[in-house]
Amino acid sequence: MSAVLPHAPLSVLSPSPAPVALRLDGVTKRHGAGGDAVVALDTMSFAVKKGEFVCVVGASGCGKSTMLNLVAGLDTPSAGKVTVAGERPALMFQESALFPWLSVEENVAFPLQMQGLSRKARAARVAELLHLVHLDKFAKRRPHELSGGMKQRVALARALAQQAELLLMDEPFAALDAMMRDHLHSELETLWQKTGLTVVFVTHNVREAVRLGDRVLLLSSRPGRLVAEYQVDLDRPRRIESPEVARLARTITDRLLEAARAAA
Amino acid sequence: MPQRELAGDPLARAHLHAVPGGDDGGATGREGHVLIDMPERTEAEDPLRAGLRAAVGDPSHDSPGPGDRPGRGRALWSSAWPKLTAVAMALVVWELVVLSGWRPEYVLPGPGAVLGRLWTDLLAGDIGVAAAITMKRAVIGYAIALVAGVSLGLVLARVKVLRTAAGSLLTGLQTMPSVAWFPLAILLFQLSEAAILAVVVLGAAPSIAIGLLTSTDQVPPLLVRAGKVMGARGFALYRHIIIPAALPGFVAGLKQGWAFAWRSLMAGELLVIIGHAPSIGVRLQFSRELSDAEGLLAWMLVVMLLGVLVDGLVFGALERKIREGRGLTAEHA
Q: For the ABC transporter domain, which residue ranges apply (chain A) (predicted)?
């Protein structure tokens, strides 16, 4: 971690620090003003290395969504600084948020269209992305014709189309059944390995976090504070029901409950 | 990062362990659903999937698609027969009332006589001439109302203060029966086309503006957020997200605007008689003055038919197209 601290000494002889995809420096977010102000995030600092898969867990009210909004540039912090490498990050939600008036391929093409790509360039890229999420055959379908899992895969393809270095995911699989979730975990892991993306994955499911993350950040509630972080040194691909995942998940859950008791 | 270089395919592993029962309660009875979502792979690669495919059926045939819908002719007939039956029943009731002798036939003629009259007037060209005059007014009035309503709606949607100030005024305008405008319109414009058009516009524009406002209000914030994240800001956000998302509600407003325009127009043509233009309203009025009950009822049918035709062919078709594209139609709607 020392490599990403702002005041870390930088020796010529030491290997260059891993490039950072996202950095939060003392970020605070207050909603409202004066005496009614609610602190959603309290002096939060952390960094995510390029290509890292970081999961953020916490009970409701821990400011997960606020944090994602700040990182996505949809909101500005009350204090502190958010630094994002590259262009605007891509963001995936719990609901697919596909545009119902567009076909699957038009949805995936949308960010490319916003970037001003030609129709021809868009078509080639969209075909590639739909192939990546195994939905080639469904290019002409409308979102309402797809199941929940397929919709989330289209949303993933659309997020990847943005060519962002950083992919933010806001409980993207929370609305799916357990089996579909397992399946999409594998798919996401494969895609992440193929593309070298940096992923920040917010969830309230601790096992999911351990299943996916290189690192798990634990936030406390009201105000949202970074209370602990866990390095997940388990081989991939992992299985969500494996004892190693379960063991670490239990440790994190215990710490989470402790934080919740302290807040109450 | 050597741990990322994988020997096997995690996908195959994931569903190999997931399919046979699993340890999750939610997994039972979902095989068909899950199969649809599985990536396509050959059965040689994956015998388990092949077995399941044989047991459950090929998922590519289970998913909904246009190919599954019944034939066009059958669909047309299934939507037409209830309507035809309803019309036939209305005619029967009408005939029964006439047969009961409640009013003499020169005051309330039966459907046979009226439909006969409708046919001869149609052949004589009277109906064509009158419908042309009336529809021209309707189209001009509605076009002005459309421009006015959309402009007003957009301005109010953009400027919050104006909306607070003018919102209730707009609702007041919408609920006011448009006939009540005629005395003022006649004072201002005399007995002229302008008087009729003014009232048609006043009748339709508020509905169109309100339709636009409520439909943009109801755009899901999540879609707006998604659009912003992908780089749609300012005008692009309106063009690519807010307008298409608001379209179904906006078309409903357009349709209601048409209904108001048509009512206002009929009231206008009855009150503002312009002699050299034998519109539908003028023909109705003349039929009454000549105590020509057959003609009166025939012209009333023309008014009804035109209203239904425009509503169904223009707005109904537009609404259906939008709703179908988004999966908003109920089965067998």
A: 22-246
